[in-house]
Amino acid sequence: MSVFKVKAIQSLQAEFSVPGDKSMSHRAAMIAGISNGDCLIRNFLPSEDCLNTLKAMGALGVSYTILEELEGFGPTVIRISGRKMKLLKSPMPIDCGNSGTGMRLLAGLLAAQPFDTELFGDESLSSRPMGRIINPLAQMGAEIHARGEKAGCAPLVIRGKELQPITYEMPVASAQVKSAILLAGMFCEGKTTVIQPAETRDHTERMLAAFGVRTEREGNAITLHGGQCPDARDFRVPGDISSAAFWIVAAAALQGSRLLIQDVGLNESRNAIISVMVRMGAKISDRVHNQEDGEPIGNIEICGRGLTGTVIRPEEVPNLIDEIPVIAVAAALAEGKTVIRNAKELRVKETDRITTVVKNLRLMGAEVEEFDDGMEIIGGKPLHGAVLQSYGDHRIAMAFAIAGLFAEGETIIENTDCVNTSYPGFEKHLSAIMKEKTDPQAYVLKTIKHEKAWD
Ligand code: S3P
Asked: In what order do the strands lie in the sheet with 374-379?
């Protein structure tokens, strides 16, 4: 079981890029896999979550060739041959690992396939709510059984059926639920509409559009016309802003720092971390330099000037839901009070992230009050090193590695293998930052070029 040993830094002057976006990599594997031909996916994220989705598509009959790999992790450039909407029955149950996105989106994709599929996951995924996708998919005519020990939880058995389009008002603001319904809607005749209670990340809609599948948006309602097969095309995945967020906070909290993160996704439904850190006092410029493939990509430059507390607005929460653990760390480092409410969804992520964040912040000496739907942090008290659990949650491990960069003494984070579910190479970047390296080469993750089939 690996651990992070983190010590305080005095300076952060660096330029580097982070691996590909997790949300988009899942979607690229799925949408390319049902397209009508060969698609080259570049900068795919070789994290455990996305590799599980890629392997799932392989088990469902999609063939692919690996052209480049991130050394020690897995494929980054892949040629995927789409199956024109018709997948094959998997010879065995499909392992979604730790990934809610993988399981929920695959359920949508499989709901209309004429065979049964079983999806299972690890302990964390087996305790996360699946009723949120089972209910709307059942309204469309799908038959999905949640066979978990906990009611409404995985393993899921999906018995493919002919589906009917629906108009569905989502009770929670979830891009995963929206995407599962839209993917299922592709197999229906007629219009499927999903109404969101608040805007959620729109990668599915954008990627479908890039692959020639029309959706329409009216306010927070998204409509998809069924019966369209994605047109094969190439897609480049931008860097993951949720991975960049750890370094954005580190740089923002350190007076005199300068950090440039290159080629990161700047989709407006994901970039609230930037406006929040600016509100907290950081000087940040973000510039889109590329709009190809329907997703804005650009560089983010952060100059640290110290932080002050803020109030996270309710409408910002879905946009920065994955960044809240590291925002809570920023809040502990800021002067004054930060309020994070309307974020009950955090309780059903890889861990209950309200509990795990509050526990770890307190162990480091921060003043924090827990609420059912969030927390209030009185920042500015010096943090001290501690022995912390990741609780097997990648974002908890990484958020508290950032806290350790500002704590007196050593911070030890236990059970850190989980960071590979979203950020292969995090440890290398952390170690270069702890050594205060300014040479960009110190941050480069090594790729290997070769052509091979998946083994
Ligand atoms: C994701 C959506 C979010 C996010 C998750 C990835 C996606 O979940 O927390 O890490 O790729 O659609 P919800 O949409 O369920 O909030």
From this structure: 336-340, 374-379, 367-371
Q: Measured from the CB, is residue 242 less than 6 Å from ligand 1?
A: no
Q: Which residues are catalytic?
A: 322
- Ligand 1 atom index nearest CA of 132: 15
CA distance 24 to 45: 9
Residue nearest ligand 1's atom 10 by CA: 322
User: For 97-134, how does the pLDDT look when each residue is reduced to its tens digit (9 = 90+)?
Assistant: 999 999 999 999 999 999 999 999 999 999 999 999 99
Handedness of CA 145, 146, 149, 154 (dihedral sign): positive
On whether both 15 and 31 belong to a single domain, the answer is: no
Ligand 1 centre and the CA of 305: distance in Å?
A: 31
State the pLDDT at residue 190: 96
Q: Which CATH number belongs to the domain containing residue 121 in this structure?
A: 3.65.10.10
Same domain for 298 and 348? yes
Residue 278 clears pLDDT 60, i.e. is over it: yes
Q: Does the beta carbon of 23 lie inside 6 Å of ligand 1?
A: yes
* 321 within ligand 1 shell (Cβ under 6 A): yes
